[in-house]
Amino acid sequence: MKNKIIVSSLVLFIGACLIGIFFFKDFFIAPTGGDYCNITDIESSYNAEAEIAQALAKMKSSQDKATVIMRSNSGQRRIAITFDGLTDGTSMQQILDLLKKHNVKATFFVDGMQTAEDPQTVVNIKKAGHKIENYSLLGISKMETLPVERVVKDFSRAQKIIKVITDQEPNLLKCNDTNYTDQLLQAAKACGFNSVVKSDVFLNVKQMNSLLAADTFVGKLKPGSILSVKLKPNTEKIVNESGKTDLRPAIDKQPGLKELPQEANLGEKETIAAVERLLIAISKANYTTAYVEDFAADSSMQNPVKTTFFQNSINNVKESIHYSFFIKIASFLQEEFTSLFIGRTAYAAESVNSEVQEIKVISTTEPALSYTFGGLANETVVNDVLTRLHRLGIKATFFVAEVEMKKYPETLRRIIENGHEIGIAIRPKDGETADETRSTILRDSKKLQEQFGVATNLVKQPWGAVSDTTKEVIFSLGYKLIGQSVNVVQNKHKDYTSANQVMAEIFGKSMLSLARGQIVHFRMDYYANDRLVGDLAEIIKQRKVDNIAYATFYDNPANNLSNDSQYTIKPVGEILNNTRFIYRYPVDLTTVSAHLKNDGSEQMIDTHNFLAEASKRYIGNRDVNDNNNMLGFSKMDTRRLDKSGLIHTKDNVIFITFDDWGTDASVNKILYVLRKHNVPATFFILTHNVVNNPNLLRTIAMQGHNIGDHSDKHKPMVVRDPKTGKQVNTQDKEEYIQELATSYQKLLTITGDVNVNGKPMLTKFFRPPTLAISKMGIEVLFETGYEFIVSGSCNTNDYRAKNVPQLEKIIEDGVYTENGEVRKGAILVLHMLDSAAYTAIALDILLTANEAKADSDPSKFKVGRLSDYLIDGYSQISRKSLK
C-alpha cells in the first residue's frame, strides 16, 4: 500500500512538472526571433550581440568544453552522412529528392550567411525531415587561428540566423578544415553547442565517376563513419587588420573576386550524379544511415562530465539534461495537442492555403519575364538604371517602402514618368501583428494613390522569410505577394567591381538562360560601384534572355517582324494580368479527363494476351533486337515485335519527336521553328527537372504538341553488365512502377487540362530511355496505363552532330529512301537538349525545302501528330493502314 502511494505521488509530481513546463516553458527559454525582415548585412539584421556577450561571459566563468563526435563505436552497420554548406536551390532540391528516394537520413551543416540569403532552401531541408546544424557564419577554414572573441562572434551570429529561419537552435557545430583546439571547444560550448563534429571520410566528386567507383568507395567505409559531402568550397579564413575590432571576412573586403579553389569549378550536375551513385552503393552495401547526433552517445571521444539539473541556477536551467528531457516531452505534447484543434503548424515560407504563397515564378506561358528593383536612396544609381532600361526598351516593377515615399518623392515620380510599375515594399518587424501589417499596406497604398496617382496590388518583403501572418494579411486584402526566382544582390557581392564577377556566382555554368515567368530582383542602394546594377541589368538581358531567341543570318527577330521567338521583360503586374497565358499550377485534376487519370486497369492485359498486345502497341527500332537492348523475350517473341519504327499509313506523313529536357534557350528555338512551319511534334519528356520549369512544358502543350513520357531519371529498362556481358534490368518491378507513377504525375499536374481543338495534348505514349525494352518493363507500362511504346525509325543522335550539314544529311536519310521517296510513317528521334545545338536550324532547313515543293511533288511530305494516328484500334502488326 505504501509503495502504491509513493508511485501515485511520483506520477502526480511528474504530471505537475510537465503541465508547468507546458504552460511556462517560455519563461525559461529566450524567445526565438530577430530582425530578420530587414536583412542588409549580418551586423544589422540578425542581431546577436546579446548572445555574443552571454557566450563571452560563460567562457570567463566556465572551462567546459564541447565534445568531439568523430565516429561511432556502436558496432552497428550504419554511417552518418553530412552535407557541408549550401549550393543553389535547384541542386539542393535534387539532393533532397535523392535522399527521399533512397530513404537516407542526412545532417545538413549550413553556414549562416547562405542561410540568410536563401532561407527557402533551408526551410525545404527541414520540411524534408533532415537535421540542420551549424557550419559557422561563412564556412571558413582554419578557425583555430582566429582570436577567441572572433570565433564566438562567428558561432553566435550563425546560430542566431539559423535559429530565426528554422525556429530551432542547432545542437551541433562543424568547422571547415579546422583543428579543434581546447580554446575552440570552450568557445563552442559557451555558444550553446554540446558537441562539434569531425568527419573521417569525404566524398571526392571527381573520383565518384561511375557506379563501380562508388561501390569501391563504399566498400572501404568502416561502420560508424561520418561521411561528408562538401557543397561549398573552402573559404579563406578571416584576416585580422590592425585598428579594427569587428572585422567582416576578407571576402567582403576584396576589390574583386579571387579565384576559387578547384573544388568550386566542379559542376552541380557532377555533384548530383556523384551523390546518386553514392546512395545507390550505400544501399547495395546494406548500410543504414543515421543523424550525426545519434553518434554522440557512442562516439570515439568520451563526453565530458555533465552538470545536473539541481546544480544549475534557474537562469542556466535550459542547459541541464533533465530540463531538456522535460522540455522535449512538453514540446511534443504541446504540438500534438495543438494539432488536434488548430491543424498543422506551417514552417516559414509554407502555408496551408496555397493561394497565399509568395509568387517567385509567375505561372504563365507568355514569353516574358520580369525585372524588379528596390532601394531609392542612391539617386545616381536610380538615374543610371532608368537610362539603361529606357535604352533597352524594358519596363520594370519598382517596389517602394513608406519611408522612401517620404524621403524621395521626386525620384519616385521620375520612375513613374518613365512608365514603370510601382509596388509596395514592406518590412514587418519581428512580432508585428496582423493589424499592424495591414495598416502599413493600406497606408502605403493610399499614399501612392493620393500623392502619386498610382494604384497597385503588388506587395514585396525585400528581405527575410515571409511569415504566415504577413502572407494571410496580403491575401485577405486581395494583394499579390511578390518574391523573386533570381536574387541578384547577395551580401558578399557588396564590393564587387564588375558584372562578370556577380554573374559567375549568381548563375554558374548550368543556368544557361532565364525562363518564362521568372522574376529577377535588383537592389539599387547596396553596391559600392554605382554602375554595377545597370551593368547587371544589361548583361543579364544579353546573356540570359536574348540568347533564348531563334536568331540566324537568314531569320533574326531584329529584321523579321514575324519572328516572335524573342522573350520580353515586362512589369510583374502586366504579366499577371495577361489572363490569356496565366494558368493554375498544379492543375485542378477535376478538369482533367477521366481517360488521362486512369491507371490502366481497364486494359485487361494478362499473361495470355500480353504478347499480342505488346505486338500491337510497340513501335520499335531496328537497333533493338534480341541481341541488343532487349530482355525477357524469346527469339520467337521478338519476331512478333516491330523493328521498323514506322507508323503504318498510306499518307506521305512523317512524325517529328523530341526526347529529354532542356532550357528555354534550346526548347524555345525548336518551338519557333515548329510554329514557323505550322507543324506539330511529340515531346517525350524526361521529368526529373521539369517541375523546376513547368511554364516551359505547359507552353509546349499549349502550342499544340503531344506530350509523352520518357521516364523520370532516364534509367534504361535494360543495360549490359560490364562484368558478365549479359543484359540485366536496372530496376525491379516495384521500383519501375514508382518511377513511372512519379513521371506521369508530373506531366499530369502541368499539362493534364490542356486541350487543343478538343483533344488532350497529354498522351499515354512512352519512349524508352536509350530505346531499350524488357518484358517486365512493358508489363509495368501496361499496368500503369500507358497505351503505346514509341521508339522510332531514325535515331539522329543530334546532340553529337558536329555541324548543321552533317545533321541535315542524317535527318534527310531518315525522311527519304535511297530513291528519294518519302518514308511513310517515319518517326524522327531528335532531342531538346542544350547540347543539341544544330537541331532547330537543321529542322528549319528541312521544312523550308519541303514547303518550296509543289503539292503534286511525290517527295513532299506532311508532318503528323502521333495522337491522330495512334488511336484506339491501331495495331502495329496490322499492315492495313488506318489512315
From TrEMBL:
<dbReference type="Pfam" id="PF01522">
    <property type="entry name" value="Polysacc_deac_1"/>
</dbReference>
<keyword id="KW-0472">Membrane</keyword>
<protein>
    <submittedName>
        <fullName>Polysaccharide deacetylase family protein</fullName>
    </submittedName>
</protein>
<dbReference type="InterPro" id="IPR011330">
    <property type="entry name" value="Glyco_hydro/deAcase_b/a-brl"/>
</dbReference>
<keyword id="KW-0378">Hydrolase</keyword>
<dbReference type="InterPro" id="IPR050248">
    <property type="entry name" value="Polysacc_deacetylase_ArnD"/>
</dbReference>
<feature type="domain" description="NodB homology">
    <location>
        <begin position="77"/>
        <end position="290"/>
    </location>
</feature>
<keyword id="KW-0812">Transmembrane</keyword>
<feature type="transmembrane region" description="Helical">
    <location>
        <begin position="5"/>
        <end position="24"/>
    </location>
</feature>
<feature type="domain" description="NodB homology">
    <location>
        <begin position="652"/>
        <end position="859"/>
    </location>
</feature>
<dbReference type="InterPro" id="IPR002509">
    <property type="entry name" value="NODB_dom"/>
</dbReference>
<keyword id="KW-0479">Metal-binding</keyword>
<keyword id="KW-1133">Transmembrane helix</keyword>
